Amino acid sequence: MRNYLLPTIAVIAFFLTQPQTTRAQSQQTAQAQSPQTAPTQRPLDSLVPVRGFCIDAPRPAGVDSFVHFINEELAPRKVNTLLLLVDYHYQFKTHPELTDSFALSNADAKKIVKACTRNNIRIIPQINLLGHQGWEQHPGKLLQAYPEFDETPWVPNPEHYVWPNADNLYCRSYCPLHPKLHEVLFAVIDELCDAFESNAFHGGMDEVFYLAEAKCPRCGGQDPALIFANEVRAIHDHLAQKGREFWIWGDRLIDGKTTGIGLWEASYNNSWRAIDLIPKDVVICDWHYERPDKTAVYFAMKGFRVVTCPWRNSESGIAQVDDLVRFRDGSTKEMKPRFYGIVETTWSQTRLFLNGFYGIGQTGTTRPNTAWKCFRDVYQHIGSLGN
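The chain above was modelled as a monomer; its predicted structure follows.
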């Protein structure tokens, strides 16, 4: 089988084998190398073009608190991109059967749009596509409404979920070759982008374990890389017709076996070969949460714009910011704009994140690694580098 990684794997291997720095060493390096030692700092837009924040969409009762957070916390930190994980928590008119519980109304969406517009923050809504069609033993809204879209309908929902399991069930996938699928998906994607007045859409597409399964009557036995790439292209092309960008998580485009990065952060079912088959204007969200792996170089060398995504490890997140600035400063004019920025992720309900951020209801010992601490630390560091 042809190895599509050979042109770049030596570079990635070099970066991945470099010793990790401590947070103090990272800050010292930044002070030595960053423009803050110069009399005049460079604009942040030249250092970190995308300064993002990723969070679940709030429930309707929490919209006003979330708008307050946008005005009082995101805007002062010069966050310019809000990646909003909506999924089916919106009151869809095109397909009301897909509206999940605690769904936002159009009026709720417009409150968020108004706050973001006032603060020059771009909204990118997300619906999880391909994988993550539910969670563990619970099918999600799409497969509840359209069970015929399920890639693996023969896999039972266990009464008590455990991992690992004999069926390799982590999250279900839809079959991208079902003839009725895109008619449904494109309608809700368009409606969500219209509601949030967005010129970009995030489709998730991460952690896809079920793909081109042998027993599927449509895609069974086909090349997983081709199936993955064709689904990316189908969604990309639909969005492009309306002048919208397509963003995805990057883990399924990394060869897990070659890099040793692992089952969740990289692919073990050969979907990674799709990296040479998808449009180059897809924006890659490259997530590594505990170790700042340098895979942004890999994506940039393949021609993609890439944003690096920390979560709850401040030391790693700060190192990722420093890597971004260093990669941009040390790149050719062709490569530099591909190192696109940073998106801080949260992975909790909005209410829980805000409670943690503001210290509401917390007792006992403070946890050392939290999304709200990492958010503060990463953006304090970004703020120290430019203006």
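The two ends are 49 Å apart (CA to CA).
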